[in-house]
Design goal:
- The structure is a single chain.
- This protein is of the alpha/beta class.
- Helices cover 29% and strands 26% of the residues.
- The strands form 6 sheets. A 4-stranded mixed sheet has the order 22-23-1-24. It has a 4-stranded mixed sheet with strand order 2-15-17-16.
- Helix 1 runs parallel beside helix 2.
- It starts with a strand and ends in a 6-residue tail after the last strand.
- It binds ligand EPZ.
Length: 428
């Protein structure tokens, strides 16, 4: 397994290009199943999760054509002329739980679907019960058999009113896609408002779907008989934006994030501003630098959009480890998203976890150490800590990082970081 070595203590200066959003591209890719016409997606990040979704779609019979962009990203042309298989197998789904996003489209297009139940993952059990409940309210029969979801709607899905008891991002996305081809009107109450959901809805409308309330927590969909192909540019990744904003702040640097959009991360910008980090819109994106003096500890609580994103919690915690004063970080979305805490403590951080909250007391500095990555965002928080730490940090199991960050070393080296990847010689 590859590992990344960081020699910390260098200020980042320069510019970092922001890639397309992984968590928008994944549902957008699944949407190709809703039509037999080509769906062209540009600004797709070249990361492992996207490759996994492309492999799954190819298994289902989708023609996947890929064109790399000059430096970062790729354009995918996805054509589900006919769906040859309706099974999303365990060996693919276990690698990427977002594979469950093919469930709604397969059911709507083919009248049945067989999708492996995604197991839990490091950050929580992450059930999909709300996906299944909503699909059955749309008229599907759902059976669980030997670890698979067997969903059937041979006479098609029928629109209805659905209220999610709590916000679920991919739950909203799965049902939104299914409802586009259902008979009649579907109303989704308490729908997720994440920018990635808005991006999906915008693309679906371009494909001929009838959706109102985009960006609000109530989506109104009038089903249509068929959808057409479209061309859609994936929106910039707000979590990558926030991650590199923290990289600039934690090193006391001054970095311009190219292509970043302030409207996608206003809650993160507000928190950074309260901590003493200036995030200023420029004509190329966003510029991040310390206002004056060191970062100050602030309290953060994760919430569904437009609140502070859970996917930025680990990164903010890394910044707070060297802030002046204390910070209380509360995780309200997932039940086990503090795995980065013991690793940060091995680097000299002072963090105490009490249930869903972590108290971070700032220390003068961190010391590099060998650390273990456990999930995508915990991994990147260790890279951020390594950039600020004195000495050498070795981050193992970087395959977690590669799931969601496109060429992270190249982007950081481009701003003066001393970071290197060592490919582990395979023993076989
Ligand atoms: C999406 O996951 C993102 N993944 C996650 O990003 C992100 O952390 C999460 O939304 C929250 O913003 C993708 O978009 C591919 P949820 P998702 O359904 O949809 C519970 C990353 O790092 N729940 O909004 O799976 C669930 O356990 C990843 O890029 C149920 O109980 O998250 C969680 O506690 C990590 N039953 C909460 O709701 C359900 O049927 C929110 O989950 C569905 C969810």
């Amino acid at each position: 397994m590859d590992r990344i070595v960081i020699r910390g203590g260098r200020r980042l200066t320069g510019a970092i290009p922001i890639s397309g959003a992984k968590n928008a591209a994944l549902p957008l890719m699944a949407a190709c199943l809703l039509t037999d016409q080509p769906l062209v997606l540009s600004n797709v990040p070249a990361v492992a999760d996207i490759a996994s979704m492309a492999n799954l779609l190819a298994e289902l019979g989708v023609d996947v054509a890929r064109q790399d962009a000059a430096d970062y990203g790729q354009t995918l042309t996805l054509t589900a002329r006919e769906v040859k298989d309706i099974t999303a197998p365990y060996d693919l789904v276990r690698k990427m739980r977002a594979s469950v996003l093919v469930l709604g489209p397969l059911l709507a297009r083919c009248g049945h679907a067989r999708v492996s139940l995604p197991g839990g993952c490091a950050i929580g059990t992450r059930p999909v019960d709300q996906h299944l409940k909503a699909l059955s309210e749309l008229g599907a029969t759902i059976r669980l058999d030997s670890g698979y979801i067997e969903a059937a709607a041979p006479a098609g899905l029928v629109g209805t009113t659905i209220t999610f008891p709590f916000v679920t991002v991919t739950g909203t996305e799965n049902i939104l896609m299914a409802a586009c081809l259902a008979r009649g009107e579907t109303v989704l109450h308490n729908a997720a408002r994440e920018p990635e959901v808005v991006d999906l809805a915008t693309c679906l409308v371009a494909m001929g779907a009838q959706i109102d309330g985009i960006g609000s927590d109530t989506l109104r969909i009038i089903g249509v008989d068929r959808l057409r192909g479209a061309a859609h540019e994936v929106l910039p990744d707000r979590i990558e934006t926030g991650t590199y904003a923290v990289a600039a702040a934690i090193t006391g640097g001054d970095v311009e994030l190219l292509g970043a959009r302030a409207d996608l991360i206003s809650s993160v910008m507000d928190s950074l501003a309260a901590a003493g980090v200036a995030v200023t819109p420029t004509n190329r994106g966003l510029r991040v630098a310390l206002k004056n003096g060191p970062v100050q500890g602030i309290d953060v609580m994760t919430e569904p959009f437009p609140g502070f994103p859970t996917d930025m919690q680990a990164q903010m915690m890394a910044l707070m480890t060297i802030a002046g004063g204390a910070a209380m970080i509360t995780e309200t979305v997932f039940e086990n998203r503090f795995m980065h805490v013991p690793e940060l403590c091995r680097m000299g951080a002072n963090i105490n976890v009490h249930g869903a909250s972590a108290i971070v007391r700032g220390v003068p500095g961190l010391k590099g150490a060998p650390v273990m990555a456990t999930d995508l965002r915990a991994s990147v928080s260790l890279v951020l800590a390594g950039l600020a730490a004195s000495g050498e940090t070795v981050v193992n199991r970087v395959y977690h990082l590669d799931r969601g960050y496109e060429r992270i070393e190249a982007k950081l080296v481009g701003c003066g970081a001393d970071i290197e990847r060592f490919r582990e010689r395979r023993d076989d």
